[in-house]
Design goal:
With 469 residues, the chain is an alpha+beta fold. It has two domains: 259 residues, Acid Proteases (Cathepsin D, subunit A, domain 1), CATH 2.40.70; 181 residues, Beta Barrel (Cathepsin D, subunit A, domain 1), CATH 2.40.70.10. It is 17% helix and 31% strand. It starts with a strand and ends with a strand. Bound molecules: 2-acetamido-2-deoxy-beta-D-glucopyranose (3 copies). This is Peptidase A1 domain-containing protein.
Length: 469
């Protein structure tokens, strides 16, 4: 999903009044947390010092600082110990095309499910009894079935103050938010690929059996459109779950979508210390993340860009120009990996080349053009009564790592029609207009049965084909 942000269309006041209804009884449970803004000059000078740590005394200071931090961390999280530095949360495939995780917030804990989304950064939940969601009657449930966080039932909830520097996170600006005398952080509005959400930022405790994360910034959404549940942002922005928790890495292996809405899951691993986890790194290939040169567009800074160099179909290179594979100086183009997108998206230029190559290599099969028109997928082949051998689809990354997708990740039979279609979509635009945003978005359908490790410490993605269940 690609969110973009805008300041309040809905006035903050109307949201507050919704939050506080019924006002008198809930008033005292929503405290204002007003933290002074940290001095940016102090922060900057600390940063530059830590970068010039050639002096022996500086190393000592660094050592002391890090051991103090480790000690403080230990004291603040008494339940955390080295054997419990990894949390495992079940990840379920769901009918609306995503994967969901349950997280517990508040005291006492309220457990809610979230779409796990590596393409955005805010974590938010449907919030208060008054939560309204338009166009949310998905196959898996109805609006009244959406579970909501009830702030007034938690003793640890606070509304994020406007002068708190975390308030700026969701607005993607490094400058302090203009508060103009307002005490609380302004309402956020996030637009996703489809749908939107809006609400107020809270500071709340995020609970794990291995230890609590206090002062976690989370969105309390009051109004949404087309959202099946809350979203747990696993992107690269400061508000994302991995960044707020200071994770060293996280990893998952998505089970097949044929288990959608069934009690079948695999573990999402959250690794808090580099030594703590038993990484399954035997046979794992790695490729470095790529930084988009443009950071002023918030969403570009949220994405995990990959250094894709080449795509081959049946061993034959598809001639894709470089600026589609890696973002250009204007920030557009490039390849990202996104668990919140269902089918991989390719810009028309890329999609046409890939589809043509499959069409050439599968030319002895009968194209199902009618089905292509109806489904929007291409190419499709009528294989009724035939068996087929499909060419391999392989992504080649800088440094030599190669990802061969499992066949079921890029070709699927549509129901029992005997028609097989490539499950990669394009915008189907006529001609080639200017490209905006990533040109290739590797969606969760193309991640099924692949172990994926987001190594945040070493800035790289690890992958290995395996059966996730
Ligand atoms: C450390 O973590 C393990 C695994 O969760 C747990 O069984 C053990 O009781 C913990 N030890 C302490 C001292 O909390
Ligand atoms: C909606 O979901 C709720 C809770 O799961 C259920 O009680 C209710 O019957 C459902 N309503 C409809 C119209 O399906
Ligand atoms: C596929 O081919 C079979 C036999 O050739 C035919 O009966 C069937 O209608 C075709 N299906 C579609 C969807 O075109």
């Amino acid at each position: 999903m690609h969110p973009s942000m805008a300041f309040s269309l809905i006035t903050i006041l109307s949201l507050i009044s919704i939050l506080c209804i019924p006002s008198s009884s809930s008033q005292d449970t929503l405290q204002l947390s007003l933290t002074p803004i940290s001095n940016p000059h102090i922060a900057a000078s600390q940063q530059s010092e830590s970068q010039t740590n050639q002096h022996p005394w500086m190393q000592t200071v660094n050592y002391l600082a890090s051991s103090s931090l480790a000690r403080a961390h230990h004291l603040k999280n008494p339940k955390l110990n080295s054997s419990a530095s990894t949390s495992a949360i079940p990840l379920f495939p769901v009918g609306y095309g995503g994967y969901s995780v349950s997280l517990s917030f508040g005291s006492p804990a309220q457990k809610l499910s979230f779409v796990m989304d590596t393409g955005s950064s805010l974590v938010w939940f449907p919030c208060t009894k008054r939560y309204q969601c338009y166009g949310c009657d998905f196959s898996t449930g109805n609006q009244t079935g959406i579970s909501k966080f009830i702030p007034k039932l938690s003793s640890s909830v606070k509304i994020l103050g406007c002068s708190n520097k975390k308030c700026g996170w969701v607005f993607g600006s490094t400058d302090p938010v203009q508060c103009n005398g307002k005490e609380i952080c302004p309402a956020y509005i996030l637009q996703y690929g489809s749908g939107s959400t809006s609400g107020l930022m809270l500071s709340e405790t995020l609970k794990f059996p291995e230890g609590d994360v206090t002062d976690f910034v989370v969105g309390c959404s009051i109004i949404s459109t087309r959202q099946p549940s809350g979203i747990a942002g696993f992107g690269r922005g400061p508000a994302s779950l991995p960044v707020q928790m200071g994770l060293k890495k996280f990893s998952y292996c998505l089970v097949s979508h044929r288990f959608d809405d069934k009690p079948v899951s695999s573990d999402l691993l959250l690794v808090r210390s580099s030594s703590g986890s038993s990484t399954k790194d035997i046979g794992v290939s790695y490729t470095k993340f790529h930084k988009n040169p443009v950071t002023s567009r918030t969403s570009f800074a949220d994405y995990y860009y990959l250094n894709l160099r080449k795509i081959t179909v049946g061993g034959k290179p598809v001639k894709i120009s470089y600026d589609f594979l890696v973002p250009g100086s204007d920030g557009n183009g490039g390849t990202i990996i996104d668990s919140g997108t269902t089918f991989t998206f390719m810009d028309d230029h890329v999609h046409n080349l890939v589809a043509k190559e499959f069409e050439n290599q599968l030319s002895k099969y009968h194209r199902a053009v009618d089905v292509e028109k109806m489904s929007g997928l291409r190419p499709c082949f009528n294989l009724t009564g035939k068996s087929v051998e499909l060419p391999e689809l392989m992504f080649h990354f800088k440094g030599g790592a190669k990802l061969t997708l499992p066949m079921a990740d890029y070709f699927s039979f549509l129901g029992d029609s005997g028609v097989l279609c490539m499950t990669i979509v394009s915008s189907n635009r006529v001609g080639s207009g200017p490209k905006t945003g990533p040109s290739i978005i590797i969606g969760n359908y193309q991640q099924q049965n692949i172990y994926l490790e987001y190594d945040l410490e070493k800035e790289r993605l690890g992958f290995k084909k395996q059966i996730c269940k």
